[in-house]
Amino acid sequence: MPEIVNPALANAGAGPAAVPQPRSSQDAIDLIVREEDSSPEYYARHYTHFEWPLGASGPTVGIGYDCGYSTAAQIKSDWTGFVADDVVTALQRAAGLTGEAAHQWVRAHGGSVTITWNQAIAQFRAHELLKWEHIVSQHLPGSDKLNGDCFGAITSIAYNRGPSFDAPGPRYAEMRSIKAHVASGNLAAVPGDILSMRRLWPKGGDLWNRRVHEAALFTQGLRTAGIA
Description:
This protein is mainly α and about 230 residues long. It is built from ten helices and two strands; from the N terminus they run H-H-E-E-H-H-H-H-H-H-H-H.
């Protein structure tokens, strides 16, 4: 993934800066947290320390935060103020590790960080979600016209698959189609794009089901907007 710029920009003018608010609806925020970590109990078992979620993933902590696709500088920017400085330093050691290298690293160093559920949720809501909303806005022309459910559903997809709306090859055909349909205003076609992605994963598996939930949320947003 490319280096990501922190979107939490202070408002111009005198006085204290306004706290940035997410564009995603509460239903969308709940969906992302649920799909990434399921529940506080599941989080406590799997993500309090480093976890390797298989495949090309890197060492992962928090609400689906993959250190393997982050630089040490990004990690410092993303986590400073949410966890102690020594935890930030430990997170930075996992930067850039993916696949089997990440697997072996987690086996050796998985317990080197401890991040509580409350810390993870605070970091996600105040920083990570805003960062990914900014990424979606930058990569998806026309996304400024989406309501919170529709925008949040696409943010969930990008949070899971990266900002791959221009990636080549058949694996990313639906991502390119989503970009085209949002840009043209053909929003009614987007739930079908999302559901079509299910071909990439085993039927009934976590990611297969996640796409179903995201498509349903986007459809909910269309109904609210009077489109579906």
